[in-house]
Design a protein that fits this description.
The chain is α+β, with helices and mostly antiparallel strands. It contains nine helices and eight strands.
Length: 465
């Protein structure tokens, strides 16, 4: 039994080892086959491709995701509805009024003119009968200066809300433009840092070879290694800055800011319009000026509404239906219950302890503030327009100089390396040339972002964005 058991255990062990070897031999061949079949199967989900985003698409997406702009759009729609509500106050209102009124009876009394018929009288003398049914259509209309002023105020408030929405849209466009070109610049700076790191590593290799050939001192190798380590740190910082820039823009573009996307960089830089065209566009289409002007109109409407309290208010009422002891068109004695009544009311203000005069004074004070705000907006617009145009012109003029500096720095590095390789230059000259190239390339990217941001600010003021 012991011999049989030992033989069976060895057999199972041999079988298990054989299966294991077969698995390790077959599995590497099966996994690629499965991968190929999954790639060939269109039903399998493919890897998500990065979304290509243009500046126009970024602006469109940001308008749907930015809370301040969405709130401004909601305020504008709400103000438009307020204008419709104020307009309806000038039109007659219609109400279908239904009421049943029961009053405790106070015994019986004879009804004059109705023979021997008797009817219970109500205890409250103000009520008409014990059982009273009212079913009437009521048309009311009030005519006064307050309703007209309310409509004017609602129109002005809607204009203010529309101007504020345009201000929010242009501000969002300027912010998205800055983030958009900032992210592109961060990607370019990352590429610059990668090239600088590769250049530093290549130079470290060159100094090492020259040291082996006894053409350079070990101090050159040390200096090159220090430069390479600095470039590696710069590359890490540039990679972090690029990721942060993409996340900040992604917050405005996607539900998940970590969504992979590619920015479509424009091939050419937008041109700057002439000074005369910019001034004409700013004077014709500036939302801040429109908002201040609409705010002044709103203050004028408040003054008109306050002064309207001095004038009489005319009220018109027309009522058609029944108001009878029976809920019927005709009473039991053949009297017709259905009829109408009309009234005209004229309320003339006499004395309110100067409350109206004080309200008028308050509205005039607020109107004076609106006038000052309007003139200040005009002055600020002139100053901002000059500043924005000067900034855009200076940034545009520096673009060519920055491109030339980057090209010159690149040529200087090439020549300096050739001189060092030939034994005529020093390691410090090469390191300085490398640093100058990185500085010039980064300055060129900063200059492009500066020009795009200045141009976006100018387009925001003129309404061309």
């Amino acid at each position: 039994m012991q011999r049989t058991f030992g033989s069976g255990r060895r057999s199972r062990l041999i079988f298990w080892l054989t299966c294991t070897n077969i698995f390790f031999v077959v599995a590497p061949a099966v996994v690629p086959a499965r991968a190929q079949s999954a790639a060939a199967d269109p039903a399998q989900p493919a890897a998500a491709q990065p979304v290509s985003i243009t500046l126009e698409e970024a602006l469109h997406r940001a308008q749907a995701n930015e809370p301040s702009y969405v709130a401004a759009a909601a305020d504008s729609r709400s103000a438009a509805l307020d204008r419709s509500i104020a307009r309806s106050a000038l039109l007659p209102g219609v109400v279908y009024h239904n009421q049943y009124l029961y009053t405790e009876p106070n015994g019986l009394q004879n009804q004059a003119g109705q023979g021997a018929a008797t009817q219970a009288a109500p205890k409250f003398i103000a009520n008409n009968t014990v059982h009273e049914y009212t079913s009437q259509g009521v048309v009311d209309e009030t005519i006064g200066l307050g309703q007209i002023a309310g409509l004017r105020r609602a129109d002005a408030a809607a204009a203010v809300a529309a101007a504020e929405l345009e201000i929010a849209r242009r501000g969002l466009a300027a912010a998205v433009t800055g983030l958009y070109y900032g992210a592109i610049s961060a990607d370019h700076k990352l590429a610059i840092a990668e090239r600088a790191r590769a250049e530093a590593a290549d130079f470290t290799s060159l100094t090492g070879k020259r040291e082996q050939q006894r053409e350079a001192a070990h101090a050159d190798v040390v200096k090159a290694q220090l430069q390479q380590q600095q470039r590696e740190r710069d590359l890490s910082d540039a990679r972090l800055a690029a990721e942060k820039a993409r996340l900040e823009l992604g917050v405005l573009l996607f539900p998940d800011p970590r969504t992979a996307y590619v920015l479509a960089a424009p091939d050419t830089v937008a041109s700057l319009a002439s000074r005369a065209e910019v001034e004409q566009a700013a004077a014709r289409n500036n939302p801040e000026l429109s908002s201040a002007m609409a705010a002044l109109h709103e203050s004028d409407a408040d003054v008109l509404a306050a002064r309207g309290a001095y004038l009489p208010a005319l009220g018109l009422n027309y009522t058609y239906g029944i108001d009878a002891p029976q809920f019927a068109v005709n009473g039991p004695d053949g009297v017709r219950n259905l009829g109408y009544s009309a009234s005209v009311t004229l309320d003339i203000p006499v004395w309110d302890w100067l409350a109206t005069a004080h309200k008028v004074k308050q509205s005039e004070i607020r109107r004076d503030v609106a006038k000052v705000a309007l003139t200040n907006t005009q002055r600020r617009l002139i100053a901002r327009l000059d500043e924005a145009y000067a900034e855009a012109a200076a940034a545009r003029d520096q673009l060519a100089s920055l491109d030339a500096s980057a090209a010159t720095a690149e040529e200087s590095l090439r020549l300096t390396r050739m001189r060092y390789t030939g034994g005529e230059g020093t390691v410090l000259e090469v390191v300085d040339a490398q640093t100058a190239l990185v500085t010039a390339a980064n300055a060129r990217e900063d200059g492009r972002v500066r020009y795009q941001a200045a141009l976006a600010d100018l387009q925001t003021l003129t309404g061309t964005m």
